[in-house]
Amino acid sequence: MKQVRAAIIGFGGMGSQYASMLYKGEVPGMALAGVCCRNTKGQERLKKDYPGISIYQSVEDALSHSDTFDLAVIVTPHTSHVEIGLKMVQAGKHILLDKPAGVSAREVRHLHQAAQERQVSFGMMFNIRMAPAFQKAKELLDQGALGKLTRAVWICNTWHRTPVYHRSAPWRSSWNGECGGLLINQSQHYLDIWQWLLGMPDQVLATLEYGKYNDFAVDDGGDIQFFYQNGLHGTFITSSGENPGLNRLDIWGTTGRLSIEDTARITLDENQIPTDEFARINQEIYGILPHQLREIPVEAAGNGYQKIFSNYADHLLQGAPLFADGTDGLNVVTMTNGIYLSSWLDKKLSLPADETLFLKKLKEKQDNELL
Fold first, then answer.
1. Cross-strand partners of 265
2. What is the pLDDT of residues 125-134, one digit of tens each?
3. Are residues 110 and 137 part of one domain?
4. Which end of the chain lies in a sparser environment, N or C, as judged by fewer CB atoms within 10 Å?
């Protein structure tokens, strides 16, 4: 393979952005081969703006022309991600999914296993990972810059959405259309960053708010606690009904505190000596441990979507590791399912949570929404 031929499956807001990026040649090693679009208006636009590419009337039509592409970029409503992904994988196509990977951990695991069996690549469009601030934070944590991690707190309520947004598509913000709200939608990227930086939690205790700011039944706010066997305790606070919002992640360890603000600025407040060592040698009742704050320089942010596409091209052409793969997609859906179920049952749960019970409770939510 000298160049990756990508087919965009879905020509909505993000699908059209991806198609434009690839058609303009903004991703080295990857070209736009075709777009799957079911509506006539979109197909006419494709004929006008993207001459020379294949236009597929449906997923089945794309599969009948599978010799025209190598990679399927799936940008449809997420309830269809696994179904379409499985069809592509079974046809021997590599897949790149927009978030979330699916609705339930059970179905995403099935897709992940199928991709492994067919020996095709499964990537996730977790473009927020490509922010230089998070890249630097990952580097510092992997180097042990904070020592033993003890606490993490992320307040991310910059998702303010009004009813205009929630009514912008019939599937949005509903149990039947989206299988959830804020958690399954906007929070997916930051839940991915959480598990990428800190690892998968062992337990979760969640308090979610349903229709607090909107006239709907799904979640639009939440306070989530994550527990780790190694002693790390995390708190994740989010909302789509508050303004002005705050986006700040603080991580504490024995050697200091790392802070990431607005996905762009990092500061490291370092203890002169680790807290556990200070506890051992300090002889003063109110002993003060000196610390020093410094800003960590990071490069200007680029186009995260472009970086994910470039990484996928390098992966297929040169064997580079994927920045975000199917395991990451599965991890985030596992966290999401556990958070929802913890909220519904009002108790702390181990992860992965009971997948059969999650699906049963979700079906109850969907049925009640239709009454």
1. 261
2. 999 999 999 9
3. no
4. C
Q: What global pTM score does this model have?
A: 0.96
Q: In CATH, what number is assigned to the domain containing residue 96?
A: 3.40.50.720
Structure tokens at 293: 């704050």
Residue corresponding to tokens 């002005």: 244
Are residues 92 and 147 both part of a single domain? no
Q: Is 8 exposed, middle or buried (0-12, 13-18, 19+ CB in 10 A)?
A: buried
| Amino acid at the residue 226 | F
Structure tokens at 16: 């059209």
For residue range 237-266, list pLDDT tens digits in order: 999 999 999 999 999 999 999 999 999 999
pLDDT digits (tens, 9 = 90+) for 64-100: 999 999 999 999 999 999 999 999 999 999 999 999 9
- Tell me which residue range forms the domain holding 340: 130-301+332-370
151, β-bridge pairs: 233, 252
**3-class secondary-structure state, position 336:** helix
